[in-house]
Amino acid sequence: MTSARHLTVHVYPWLKAGQMPAPKRILILVVILAVAGAGAWFGLLRYGATPADPGARNEQVLVVAPGMGINAVATLLHRAGIIHHPDLFRLFARTARGRHVIKAGEYRVSAAMPPSDILDRLFSGDVVLYRVTIPEGFAIDQIAGAVAQAGLATSEAFAAAARDSGLAKEMGIPADTLEGYLFPETYYFPATATPRKMATAMVDRFNAVFTDEWKTRATQQGFSVHQIVTLASIIEKETAHPDERPVIASVFHNRLAKRMRLESDPTVIYGIPDFDGNITRAHLRQETPYNTYRIRGLPPGPIASPGKESLYAALFPAQTGYLYFVAKNDGTHHFSATLAEHNRAVQTYQLGRRRKK
């Protein structure tokens, strides 16, 4: 009968020698390390997929400053209770997500988000955007007020950017300011957007709307783009009724063709510093570059930002014989081809209204 000791020596002679062959030792070590590494890797992936608090409902705003790295961000998130184990967060970011740069800005994050989603948001630059709506007919100071109300910049800072002659030249605008070219629309800007970047985005939008076909049309009409924008801004301020814009445009085109003064109250108002809302005869007699009761032709530049419809009306006016219009006090206007008819309309809609009051 063979003893157990004899069997052991016979079957595993390398144990008696107290040595394991090097290839086998390496293989076992590799297996052990692989098993441990796989466990650590799956544990790290499980961490990345597990929210710190799945029941959390409130989002917080994380402010990432320019140049802030993953170490600082992990610390901020941990202090805010958004993640557990900041060291694991850093390790997960560097291994499972590779080498990425965190973009500066404001981010909405929640403890109900797994770390993987938080990192995706940070790496993609999915920042909080602030809505700014610029109505048609707003001038620079009004647009600056809208930007300030959105919390993106002070009105003074934005107005300064919009009146920067260097920026106007850079944007190809033949004027010292961006007046008229800050296209009225709804914009979404991150908190990191500077006044200059916001103003540039508005001008870029204008350039997208004012197509090459429109530029050709302006030339065919005998106007520069700047003159069309100026005329469109006056049309914009004269009426809020879309149907009237082409007719208002026809009046101004007809008057320009006859070398008549435009006599537009909004241009007078634009040239009055600190206008109090009450236009007087003295204002109409005041000599300013924008007083179209005193100058012939168009003023030197736009008086507000016209919308697409007003730009179109300036380029494609209605074909009429009208030379005059007067407000009917219901938001619309009465149009006349002769001065006599216009005077009667003034008696009816303006002087008659005053007598009734």
Describe the structure.
The structure is a single chain. The protein is mainly α. It folds into three domains: 60-124, Endolytic murein transglycosylase (Dna Ligase, domain 1, 2-Layer Sandwich); 129-209, no CATH class; 217-322, no CATH class. The protein is 51% helix and 8% strand. The chain has helices at residues 4-11, 13-16, 22-48, 70-79, 86-95, 115-124, 140-149, 155-162, 165-170, 195-209, 212-221, 225-238, 245-257, 265-270, 281-285, 308-315, 339-356, and strands at residues 60-64, 105-109, 129-133, 186-190, 324-327, 333-336. The strands form three sheets. A two-stranded antiparallel sheet has the order 1-2. Helix 4 runs antiparallel to helix 5. The model is unreliable at 1-18 (pLDDT under 50). One of its GO terms (cellular component) is plasma membrane.
Provide the residue-averaged pLDDT. 88
Tally of helical runs: 17
Estimate the helix proportion, in percent.
40-55%
- Give the total of beta strands: 6
Strand order of the largest sheet: 1-2
- Strand-residue fraction? 5-15%
**How many strands, what sense, and barrel or not for the largest sheet?**
2 strands, antiparallel
Shape: elongated
Radius of gyration: 36 Å
Topology order in helix (H) and strand (E) letters: HHHEHHEHEHHHEHHHHHHHEEH
- Poorly predicted parts: 1-18
Number of domains: 3
- How does the helix and strand content classify structurally? mainly alpha
First CA to last CA: what distance? 133 Å
